Description:
- By secondary structure, the protein is mainly beta.
- It has helices spanning about 5, 10-20; strands spanning about 25, 30-35, 40-45, 55-65, 65-70, 70-75, 80-85, 95-105, 110-115, 120-125.
- The protein is about 10% helix and about 55% strand.
- Strands 2, 4, 5, 8, 9 and 10 form a 6-stranded mixed β-sheet that branches. It has a 4-stranded antiparallel β-sheet with strand order 1-3-7-6, with no helix packed on it.
Amino acid sequence: MNLKKFFPLLPILLLAGCSTTGTFTHMTPTQQPRNANNLYPVEVAFDSDRQSLRWDSIRPYVIVDGQSLPMRPVPIVQNRWEGLVPVPPTASGVTYRFKFDYLCNSFGTAPQPDSSWSPVYTLKIIDP
């Protein structure tokens, strides 16, 4: 291969290799029966092939109506988190998404903050 043809593509190839984000696996049913406390459990698995990601720095949130609600790790299961989503008693559902904040190692500097966002999910509340 002619190296003169390859060098202009090098920056694009390097940037493409660094732009990976996380993979979200939604573990929550799309419908849940209405309950008395109006809080509904949601769960997500998060994975990334980003080698610079510092797994000990992950801070997961579920975002509902612009409000960030912290999540906690699922006991015994690796890379899964759970949280509670509030749904007003008069609402028939809610949309939400997950956000994971974390640090990534960087050459020659302190770890840098980064985030991954999930797609938007909808939870439908079923009245008895």
